Amino acid sequence: MNLIKIKEMKDHVGEEVTINGWLYNKRSSGKIKFLIIRDGSGFVQGIVVKNEVDENVFELCDKLTQESSISVSGIVRKDERSPFGFELTIKNVDLIQMAFNDYPISLKEHGIDFLLDNRHLWIRTPRQQAILSVRHEVIKAIQEFLNNNDFVRIDSPIITPSTCEGTSDLFQIDYFGENAYLSQTGQLYQEAAAMAFGKVYSFGPTFRAEKSKTRRHLNEFWMVEPEMAFVDHYGNMEVQEKLVEYIVQSALENCSRELKELGRDLSKLEKIKTPFPRLTYDEAIKLLNKNGYEIQWGNDLGSPDETFLSNQFDKPVFITEYPAECKAFYMQPKEDRPEVVLCADLLAPEGYGEIIGGSQRIHDYDLLVKRLKEENLPIDMYNWYLDLRKYGTVPHSGFGLGIERTVAWITNTEHVRECIPFPRTLSRIRP
RNA sequence: UCCUCAGUAGCUCAAUGGUGGAGCAACCGGCUGUUAACCGGUAGGUUGUAGGUUCGAGCCCUACCUGAGGAGCCA
Prior knowledge:
Elements lengths: L15 E13 L3 E7 L4 E7 L5 H9 L5 E10 L7 E12 L14 H6 L1 H4 L3 H23 L3 E2 L5 E2 L11 E4 L2 E5 L4 H11 L1 E9 L12 E10 L3 H22 L1 H6 L4 H5 L7 E3 H10 L12 H8 L6 E4 L12 E2 L2 E5 L1 E6 L4 E9 L3 H10 L8 H8 L5 E7 H9 L20
Parallel strand pairs: 3-5, 6-10, 12-13
Antiparallel strand pairs: 1-2, 1-4, 2-3, 4-5, 7-9, 8-9, 10-11, 11-18, 13-16, 14-15, 16-17, 17-18
Helix pairs in contact: 4-6, 4-13
This protein binds one RNA strand of 75 nucleotides through strand 1, strand 2, strand 3, helix 2 and strand 11.
């Protein structure tokens, strides 16, 4: 028995092979049957002809229900009539389990509510497999890039004693009688790690209890957070654009089958090369005002504003130097203009919005204390964070890249909830 | 939290205030190249919930529930 994966069939033309998988769909024309089989590596059509197989094999194929698990043996043939390029002329089918005959997901259209209720089965379909495979590639590329550039992975804790940035709503948990929270960012811990290892990153889930209801929001999402000692705002942006370029090029190189399945316009991704355009907040406001957006200096950019700005470019664009008042307390003020901070948001093209938020961090002890007081944050909660400024402080920078938004952009997916295996949203905690 | 929209068969959707239907899925039968196969047949319903208007409500009104899209917040 020559057990292979469907994606390896091209190397076994003319050979008899065995494939372990599931019945995705079945068509029949009397004495000939077509079984669409999937095995996780791909999809292929198997042909069963009545006079060429045992009577009980043909009978079994007649009864097979959608998603039944089977072990199929047959001859690999190249065939242009097949949309997969190859076919399997089936000799034998061993049944592992006859699936119940009420499999809920048909090949016809379904509404999003139904599909999300059946997410555990929905991920078996070609489109969802393509998206989640690209997600895997994105994660792999991020780690490759960072590992190859001397970053050390130092994960941040998920259970934290207080809000890190003092802004978003957090999920509260009981920690042996003490209130604790699920982390909304590991950044502060990454700063500590950067002072130990130089260049570090964390990669993991992050939690926001905000009641967001848009295609760009999840209440649990994954983020990679690099942090670098001795790197300023400008060096920070260079790392970000190189990372994003690497991610996109890796997806193009290793996920062509998936991107094709998704109908992605590859020419748009091929343009994602450094350097990326940069726009200061001041310039962004002017551009927005000139085009009829009524935003005033000092307000954070709204979602429609970001969409407009990103649509002006065919590459991701950095929006830099926001007013300090609309950003977090730890961001380094610009030397000659303390009302703005050395930060940058990276907006993905095609209306996908912010995929990175980053900044240079305040490294001066007195300035950081002053900023904490201005924001009315409890200073004793930040004692350990202030220690980093007391003992060998250096300029440093970092950023957070959202995995699902990045995957949504690369795969041209409408909603981030399809870019994570089991999305957690305002209205959904199951399955 | 606010704004908009929707809820009818397992799924996707029809039904002027007047006997709730179709396609797919399931089940039975037919077909030797199907591509969401096709053809014939069978079965499948407390129209989200509660109240109201009416001779009569899936349809109109009120409240609530659930979901979706968007805003704010953010990655």
